Structure formats: structure tokens, C-alpha cells
Amino acid sequence: MIGPKAVLTSPKALLLDFGGVLVETAGRPGWAAELAADVHALLERAGFDGLSPAEIETDIRAGARADSQWKDSTSRQYAPQEMTHRRFWAEFVATDWPEQARELVTAEASPLCRRMGELRSERALRPGVKELLAACWARGVRPAVVSNALCGLVHRDFLTRNGLDGQVAVQVYSDEAGVRKPNPELIHLACRALAVDPGEVWYVGDNYDRDVVCGVRAGAGATVLMVSPSTDKIPYEVRQRPHATVDNPLGLLRLLEDTWT
């Protein structure tokens, strides 16, 4: 669906969010207990036995909840920075742990964030993604991934396993860049890597407060909202509106095809 005043032209690059656009995600209820068992084993190997798996799980769940609320708050900022792996474990999970345990998980923060990302969600490609990417390359439109992530390596691993790492020209993740949407710098990083102006790209995401706001702030040629289960979970109202709304990757492909004809 296109707004009545929107006139879209074919982009030189298509910047895509990961979760909700390329991938459907479903939470795994037992993820925190599994991660707590891994952390407990890590602490035991270091000779520390002062925390039970249940206590670790409670703090992991509390840290994840606090992180979610922190993320909502950053969407009110113009140029938010991303949470570091070390800060997440030291300040959001292990705040009140004994010093040895807190320092150990802080030192191992990056692999622990990667493990957390692997355990927390089941992921599957949204139908039509492969057709969308193939059509873009055939038309000379370079697809790229621009996404917030606690650990972008998890996303890179997923695309590699599904044979799509070679089908995207650039991958930009917030934890690697140090900034998070709606900071327009995340989109600008991708544009510089692709040697295109922001006005020559479309940015596609599934959230208003992060994706639509980011695309508009970055000056993207078009900001497209792709509907996902999280689209209506808006923490607060925003002024920015997308140039177009689509239901799925095939709907995005049809929108592109309209500009090609």
C-alpha cells in the first residue's frame, strides 16, 4: 500500500532489517535456563560455585527485561549508542554477583551474547526472501542488511547457513557499529559502504519507533514498513510515517517491480 502522495523511484540499493523483514522469529521459552546452565558451567570451571543455576537464570531474565526497556527508551534519542556486550553482562545481568563471577562473565561477554542470541529465538526465512534478493541482483539493485542486534554474528551465521551471505552486498549490525537505530548513522554506514547516497536507497523495517524513524532521519529515498507480529507493539507514538507499507517480502518485490516497469 502506498500513501496518496508517495512517488517511488527504483533504488540503487535495498537496505533490509533482519528480524521481521528477512526472518521470522519465535521465542524459545527455555532459553534462559539453557544459558544459565552454560554460565554456571563456565563459573565452575573457573573454580567459582557461589551461584546456583536458578539464581543465574533469574538474573539473566532480569537483565534481558531491563535491556528491552532500555532499548525502548533509546528510540526517543536522536543518535543512540548501542549496548556493549561487556556492559550488558556487567551492569544488566551480574550487577550484584560476587566480583570474581562478575569479572568472568564480563571477560566472556561477547561469546555469551552470541550464545544468548542462538538460544533465545527460533529463526526462519520469511517466504519470498530468496526471490526478492535474486530479483534485486538481476535488476542491479544491491541488497544489504542494516539491523539492530545484541550480537550481529548470530545473524551472519544464520545467513551463511541458509546460503544467503553471498546474496547481500553489505551487513551492518549495531553491536559492531556501536550505534543503534533510530540513529541515522547506521543507514549512512551502509550507504558509504555501497557508495550510494541515502536518497538513492530504500530502507525496509518492521517497527515504527526504530525503523521508520531511522529511515526518515537518514533521508532514505523511501522508507518502507513491512508488517510483522511486532509492528503494532509501539512503545509510544512517533510522527514519522512510511512512504509505503507491505505485508511481506513478495509484497516488497511487487512494489519494486512497479518502479521497474
Question: How many strands?
Answer: 8
CATH hierarchy, class of the largest domain: Alpha Beta
CATH architecture label of the largest domain: 3-Layer(aba) Sandwich
Strand order, sheet with most strands: 5-4-1-6-7-8
Q: What's the name of the CATH homologous superfamily of the largest domain?
A: HAD superfamily/HAD-like
Shape: elongated
End-to-end C-alpha gap: 17 Å
Q: List the domain count as a whole number.
A: 2
Question: Biggest sheet, in brief?
Answer: 6 strands, parallel
By CATH, the topology of the largest domain is Rossmann fold
Low-pLDDT runs of 5+ residues are 1-5
Mean pLDDT: 96
The helical percent reads 40-55%
What is the chain-wise order of helices and strands?
EEHHHHHEHEHEHHEHEEH
Percentage of β-strand residues: 5-15%
Radius of gyration: 19 Å
Given the structure, what is the number of helices? 11
Structural class designation: alpha/beta
InterPro entries: HAD-like_hydrolase_sf (IPR050155), HAD-like_sf (IPR036412), HAD-SF_hydro_IA (IPR006439), HAD_sf (IPR023214)
Pfam families: Hydrolase
GO molecular function, one term: hydrolase activity
Keywords: Hydrolase
Name some characteristics of this structure.
6-stranded parallel β-sheet, alpha/beta, two-stranded antiparallel sheet, HAD-SF_hydro_IA, hydrolase activity, HAD-like_hydrolase_sf, HAD family hydrolase, Rossmann fold, 2 domains, 261 residues, hydrolase
What does this structure look like?
Residues 1-5 have low confidence and may be disordered. The protein has 2 domains: 13-22 and 126-260, Rossmann fold (3-Layer(aba) Sandwich), CATH 3.40.50.1000; 27-121, no CATH class. The protein has 261 residues and is of the alpha/beta class. Helix 10 (208-218) links the parallel strand 6 and strand 7. The protein has helices spanning 31-45, 53-74, 85-93, 99-107, 109-120, 129-138, 152-161, 174-177, 185-194, 208-218, 249-260; strands at residues 13-16, 23-27, 121-125, 142-147, 170-173, 201-205, 222-226, 244-246. It is built from 11 helices and 8 strands. The strands form 2 sheets. It has a 6-stranded parallel sheet, sandwiched between helices. InterPro entries: HAD-like_hydrolase_sf (IPR050155), HAD-like_sf (IPR036412), HAD-SF_hydro_IA (IPR006439), HAD_sf (IPR023214). This is HAD family hydrolase. Keywords: Hydrolase.
